[in-house]
Amino acid sequence: MSTVDVADTGSAPGVGAGSTDAPPPPEQTAESALARTLQRIARGDLLVVVMSFVFAFLIGSVLIVIADQEVRETLGYFFARPSDALTAIWQSVTQAYGAMFRGAVFDGTGYARAAESVREAGGTGTYVLVPALSAGLRPLTETLTIATPLIIASAGMAVSFRAGLFNIGGTGQLIVGAMAAGYVGFTLDLPVVLHLLVCLVAGILAGGVWGGIAGFLKARFGANEVISTIMLNWIATYLLFYALKTSAFTGANQSQPTSPSIGENAALPLLLGSGFRLHAGLFLAAGAAAVLWWLMSRSTIGFHFRAVGSNPRAAQVAGISPARTAFLVLAVAGALVGAAGAVHVLGTEHRLTEGVAGNIGFDAITVALLGRSGPLGIVLAGLLFAGLSTGGRFMESSQGVPLDLVQVIQVLVVLFIAAPPLVRTLIGLRRIDHPGAAARVRRARRARTGAAQTTAPTTAAQAAATAPSAARPAEQDEPAPGTAQGAAGAHTAGSPAGPDAAEPPGGPDPAAPEPAAGTAGEPGPAPSDERPGDRTDAQEEEER
């Protein structure tokens, strides 16, 4: 560049005082934003949940195929006609899961059948649509009915889980709440709204007291809440068995272990008429999810719950009593689960039986874990489990698939969701859980490569210096040190005046001391490949 060019630009090339790095091109920015978005999706819980269901249903498909007799018969001659086996496998899986959808969400066959029957009777327009929709959406109403107490109980479980306490007493708290609500429902005679409210309050208080017992044992004596709540489950179960054999709970019908039906004023109103079981407890389930959100996210007591669950020692230093918090946590959790028992009796069962609790208490634990103890997750997980239950029964009745397979699918879903690294490994995103591992491996590999390149010249020089004498034929003719020729050669090589000055006239002085090897003017012994302590083959043979 000429002087004029430098003067015009005001700086030398590459040394501009005001020079700045150019912004990345729009394509690179868009790619980085897309990569960050994909990474957030890969790290999130949604991908894990979705893929957990995919893997669970894939394994369930294998079990359905194994359980199908027709598929097993076609597999017997698979190599002769493989198309028969593949067709049978496809039909078995699709029909089974199709039946599950029909029994859980929408019955298309029932919709078409109802519409056709109304048209044959001369109906048109809404006279066809309403009965057809009623038949088609009946499975969905059953799913919502089963999900209602499950969501409420799961909200109570989520309170204890987020506070660091593993509450296993859902079954006992639900039984006690159902007993209290049912007893008030069939013994008292109160006005419509008041009777229903008193029954609900009785169930909530009973569940809170039952959960508070475990909380008191935890706070006062340090008892493990897992053991105490499990034992309270059995106490509540056998207490119900005993109560149903007394006159206070059985009334005039003492031949069967069931209680009288609750009064009409105590029952939860039906939302879609007498033809459906869906009741107003659905709004209470939505309210339980809202209470969970407000309690754990907006209230002071919920902050105390989360603080103790995150770090009890730090919470105690901050002035929060872990013992008092443990009691309150289990009492609140028990109250919500007791409300679920009350809703179940007042809305669906309408009387007490020995199996009134069913699997709701233990399913609530699974739903709370599946929903990450959050309100929205609990609602979705509760609907999912209820759909699997109703759809599984229809699948068993229509396709002959065992209902136990549905429970296997539920267990697999929970198993995969409980192990996110396993799911990410199965879909090829193992490095998401260890984001710096790949970079550390690359840095270590580069360091090893650089060290090898640095030591390579030194190693080559040492190998050349310590090479055997056979590799240097010019050095084989040199006499060994210590011999006469070697000494003469040494003096000749070390003498600056040549061979005539190497030795005084008359020969070497016998009284003169012999110079040590390796001193100035004389080389030391020839380098050897042997290290101190090494032995030659000849020495080893002599020892043998």
From TrEMBL:
Transmembrane residue ranges: 46-67, 168-186, 192-214, 226-244, 278-296, 326-347, 367-389, 401-423
The keyword Cell cycle belongs to this UniProt entry's keyword annotation: no
Main location: membrane
Locations listed in the record: Cell membrane
Its membrane topology: Multi-pass membrane protein
Chain positions covered by the region annotation Disordered: 1-30, 440-544
Any one GO CC term of the record: plasma membrane
UniProt cross-references to InterPro entries, sorted A to Z: ABC_transp_permease (IPR001851)
Record has Transmembrane as a keyword: yes
A GO molecular-function annotation: transmembrane transporter activity
Chain intervals with Basic and acidic residues compositional bias: 528-538
Alphabetical UniProt keywords: Cell membrane, Membrane, Transmembrane, Transmembrane helix
Compositional bias per record (Low complexity), positions renumbered to this chain: 449-504, 514-523
One Pfam family of this chain: BPD_transp_2
PANTHER family from the UniProt entry: ABC TRANSPORTER, PERMEASE PROTEIN (PTHR47089), GUANOSINE ABC TRANSPORTER PERMEASE PROTEIN NUPP (PTHR47089:SF1)
This protein's name: ABC-type uncharacterized transport system, permease component
Protein source organism: Brachybacterium faecium (strain ATCC 43885 / DSM 4810 / JCM 11609 / LMG 19847 / NBRC 14762 / NCIMB 9860 / 6-10)
Top-level taxonomy: Bacteria, Bacillati, Actinomycetota, Actinomycetes, Micrococcales
